[in-house]
Amino acid sequence: MPTPTLSIILPVLNEAAGIASVLAPLQALRPAGVELIVVDGGSTDYTAHLATPLSDRPVSAPRGRASQMNAGAAMARADRLLFLHADTRLPAGAIPAIHAALDTHLWGRFDVRIEGTHPMLSVIATMMNWRSRLTGIATGDQAIFVTRKAFKQVGGFVDQPLMEDIAFSRNMKALGRPACLRQRVTTAGRRWEAHGVFRTMVLMWRLRAAYALGADPVDLARRYGYAPRQS
């Protein structure tokens, strides 16, 4: 079997209702040298069963995006890695754009578009993209990609329940600035709309500020509404 040129690592948890629709658009990439690794974090539904025939390497790992993405990276065969959230879709031409970016950078991310009906979602996405471009900090919703060598050099993702993408970006910035691609991935705005766009925006600002001041990611995760796994 030829060595893939890119490994897509997708952490999932209880996504049975939509996992087939998530993986379907990625199937055309597999014959073109893209490896698809789905990392299940202990789903209690049929996520893993449904994902198996639609991926190259189904993997299990302790729950948590950092833990799951690190496990997927450890299994990946390609020298270039793309970390993709289950509710994020790639734009057309994403794979050639990633390869071109990694020819000159060690890592990078896409601009993002938040899908939804609230008019503020487009404003929030624009703010996220500009903030990322100015600071060199990427979020997981922006589909982070990286060379395997650089990923190993920084030790992968810090295994924490929240802000693992921020910690990773900080570590990667020590090696070099990210490639900031203007092509937009599309991520679901379900949480924003379900919990209130302005309320969620203020909450995220507060959590990021608290993290910057040294707050415990476990406490921040609970404030976000996520129950961290027990060690």
Automatic annotation (TrEMBL):
It holds the Pfam family Glycos_transf_2. The keyword Cytoplasm does not apply. It comes from the Bacteria. Coiled coil: none annotated. Keywords: Cell membrane, Glycosyltransferase, Membrane, Transferase. InterPro entries: Glyco_trans_2-like, Nucleotide-diphossugar_trans, Trfase_2_rSAM/seldom_assoc. One of its GO terms (molecular function) is glycosyltransferase activity. GO terms for cellular component: plasma membrane. Transmembrane segments: none annotated. It is found in: Cell membrane. Residues 7-119 form the Glycosyltransferase 2-like domain. The keyword Endoplasmic reticulum does not apply. NCBIfam families: glyco_like_mftF (TIGR04283). This is Glycosyltransferase. The lineage of its organism: Bacteria, Pseudomonadati, Pseudomonadota, Betaproteobacteria, Rhodocyclales.
